[in-house]
Each structure stands twice: as structure tokens, then as C-alpha cells.
Amino acid sequence: LPHRHRLVNTGQLTASGDALSGRVPLFFNNDVTFGVVLPAEPMRDYYRNGVGDEMYFVHTGSGTLETIFGPIEYGPGDYLVIPIGTTYRLVPDGSPQRMLWLECPSEIEPPKRYRNEYGQLLEHSPYYHRDIRPPAAMAPVLEDGDHVIRVRSRDRITPYHYRHHPFDLVGWDGYL
User: Fold this and answer.
1) Of 123, 24, 133, 138, which Cα lies nearest the Cα of 78?
2) Distance separating alpha carbons of residues 50 and 172, to the nearest angstrom
3) Phi, psi (5° rounding) for residue 112?
4) DSSP character string of the chain
């Protein structure tokens, strides 16, 4: 079939739900699903995607991405790349949010044409390695109560209830 141009006018969408329930998928294939999300409220529960990596491009709004690695402040123009298996929660600061959302079962990483043989970014890449910001602090959250993590696995989301906060320890090992 020939390719056809499509006009996807998302300007008329209204904010609803949170960063998970407010997702509006636009296009998909076997390797990627992407769409928009205009969260009207912060995520009450935490989320862990066991199917693939996720990315949010922040068009408008700001807030905090709370992760098991620590919090990351975000604002317009930021890419939030969340590796598979990462427990997180998006907490907007109250400003109107508009984001592009992407989910991919394969790893989200810079294209090879922008990296040398050792993985370092080249001069002509669209961003600089100093643009990548790690979490600001890694302090344990010691709160007891009913903490819910919604885990996606095999196209199903299952809530897990924990007595202790999911961020009750500090430290991680790996290259995420």
C-alpha cells in the first residue's frame, strides 16, 4: 500500500487522568507504540513496565519524575527515558502538561550514527552528553502504609500492594 499523509490534530484534546491512564495511543507497530498524554493529575500509584522501555518528551509543563534511582526534575524540552523494569511515578507541579509518550520493547538508545565505537556521542549528534541529567539525590523513603505498584507484564497491569515504600533503600548496580 502507498504511504498516505495523515493529519493528527491533538490540539483539541483535553487533559484527563494521570500519566498512565491519560495516554492516547496514536500509532503503533510490533516495535513501538506512541501517542500523547495530557495528565490532569499526579500518578497516585507507582508504575513498572515489564514489557519495554518508555520515553516521554515534555512539550509543556514541569514536575518531578520519581524513580527508584532518585528524583529527576523535568521541564519543557526534556526527554524522560525510563528503562524497562524501572519503578517510577510522574508528579506534575500543577502546570498544564502536554507530552509525547513512546513505549518500545527494544532498548531506547541513541542511534549508532551518533556514537563512536565506544558508545560516546559524536559532535554531530542532536544532543550533548552533558544534557543527560542523572537523578538529583538518592535518599531512602521510610514510610509505612499501603503502597501500590502497578506492574505491566504480558499486556496486563497487575497492582502489587506493599507495606513499605518502594524506595526504602539506596543504591543500584548496573548501567541504566
Assistant:
1) 133
2) 18
3) -60, -30
4) ----------TT----S-TTTTEEEEEE-SS-EEEEE--SS--SSEEEESS-EEEEEEEE--EEEEETTEEEEE-TT-EEEE-TT-EEEEEE-SS--EEEEEEESSPP---GGGB-TTSPBPTTSSS-GGG----S-------EEEEEEEEEETTEEEEEEEEE-TT-S----S--
Residues 23-66: pLDDT tens digits? 999 999 999 999 999 999 999 999 999 999 999 999 999 999 99
pLDDT per position as a tens digit, 132-146: 888 877 778 888 899
CA dist 88 and 127 (Å) reads 24
> How do 144-153 and 87-92 pair as beta strands?
unpaired
Residue 175 amino acid letter: Y
The pTM (predicted TM-score) of the whole model is: 0.88
Answer whether 58's CB lies under 8 Å from 163's CB: no
Cell of 159: 497492582
Cα→Cα distances 3→6, 25, 30, Å = 9, 20, 18
Cβ neighbours of residue 80 under 8 Å, at least 6 residues apart? 55, 56, 57, 58, 65, 72, 74, 90
